[in-house]
Write a structure and sequence with these properties.
The chain is mostly beta strands. The chain is built from 6 helices and 15 strands. The chain has one domain: 2-Layer Sandwich (60s Ribosomal Protein L30, Chain: A).
């Protein structure tokens, strides 16, 4: 059995619930690889081999060592690859096409690969303070960064369309450079000399912050929810 664990929902962020509700220590019990964001939507999180990194909206990358650091939303799994990737070069726009034989459209999957990237384009969510704005308004003002000829690791997930709302349907992937100086939520990339793995999950665990009163009292406007998610995620294929 291979399990993907997700704390919080993307719809929750759309509902202005950006407060941290799980600690790094608690999250590590559920996986050693994954992505997320910190309390107040503070940047982009990448988890590799149990180590947690945060890309800040000023472009700085931090190694998060405090186990009590809080996150409102994160997806993690224990790295146990199902198969090697069938390609040695890839772009964001043809990622799904290159994995067509894996038949991902109805399953959750994780991708993790290292490569030499001729181009990497990321965005990073800036930290928010209460009262929190909508995720869509945050997305409209997110700093973007680009790098050329950079080596690093892509990690993230594919989710079926039917789960759009609890999470982001399609690809949601983050990047971390080898020198730990460049990272973020991927909008576009082009890579050569790729090596890595694909992992298919037969179990998706959705964990909710039931002890958080703001979450329990949240009201969600479902009109435009999916369009809002797609706009806030940006660049997913």
């Amino acid at each position: 059995m291979s399990r993907l664990y997700q704390h919080g929902t993307l719809a929750m962020l759309m509902g202005k619930q950006m407060q941290g509700t799980i600690t790094v220590a608690e999250l590590r019990q559920q996986g050693d690889t994954g992505i997320g964001t910190l309390d107040g939507l503070d940047g982009e999180v990448i988890i590799l081999a149990g180590e947690v990194y945060q890309a800040q909206s000023d472009g700085q990358v931090n190694h998060i060592t405090d186990p009590d650091t809080l996150l409102p939303f994160a997806s993690v799994h224990f790295d146990a690859p199902t198969q090697k990737l069938p390609f040695s070069s890839v772009t964001f726009s043809n990622l799904s096409a290159q994995l067509k034989t894996a038949q991902l459209q109805q399953v959750f999957a994780a991708i993790k690969f290292h490569g030499d990237f001729s181009h990497m384009h990321v965005r990073i969510a800036p930290k928010q303070v209460p009262p929190y704005p909508s995720l869509l308004s945050v997305a409209e003002n997110q700093p973007e960064f680009e790098a050329e000829n950079i080596s690093g690791t892509v990690v993230g997930y594919f989710a079926p369309q039917i789960f759009n709302g609890p999470t982001a349907a399609g690809w949601h992937v983050h990047f971390l450079s080898d020198d730990r100086q460049f990272a973020g939520h991927i909008l576009d990339f082009s890579a050569e000399q790729v090596t890595g793995d694909l992992q298919i999950f037969d179990e998706f665990v959705q964990h909710l912050p039931i002890d958080n009163p703001d979450f329990r009292q949240m009201t969600l406007d479902f009109d435009g929810l999916i369009a809002g998610i797609e706009a806030s995620e940006g660049g997913r294929k």
